[in-house]
Amino acid sequence: MSDDDELLDPTDSAVVPRKTARRLASLDGKTITLLDISKAKGNHLLDRVEELLRERAHPRAIVRRKKPTYARPAPDDLRQEILQNSDAVIEALAD
Fold first, then answer.
1. Which pLDDT score, from 0 to 100, does residue 1 have?
2. What pLDDT digit, counting tens, does each position of 24-69 carry?
3. Is the pLDDT assigned to residue 7 strictly greater than 90?
4. Residues 6+ apart with CB under 8 A from 51
């Protein structure tokens, strides 16, 4: 993705400019949050992602969080917690 790409947010009623986060050079030594959005079997996918991260990336910590429902954006307090305590976030969607 380039800096000129326009992202559309399905939670907004109008097009709002969005920027993507800078990519980390490595996940080694980082705190990674795995966010389960509460869809069926998302936890199984995240279990495997966590295994692979521990084998290959050697993070400082892996934190698991879960949204109350997939039908709405994550609550503000959850988003703030992730923002303050994580270097990276991986969000899982599975059915």
1. 53
2. 999 999 999 999 999 988 899 999 999 999 999 999 999 999 999 9
3. no
4. none
Pairing assessment for the beta strands 31-36 and 88-92 based on DSSP bridges: parallel
The span from the first CA to the last CA of the chain, in angstroms, equals 27
* Strand spans (E) along 4-60: 31-36
**In 1-95, which ranges are E strands?**
31-36, 61-66, 88-92
Which residues, other chains included, contact 75 with Cβ-Cβ below 8 Å and sequence gap of 6+?
67, 68
Domain definitions of the chain by residue range? 31-92
The one-letter amino acid code at 37 reads: I
Residue 45 burial (CB < 10 Å; 0-12/13-18/19+)? middle
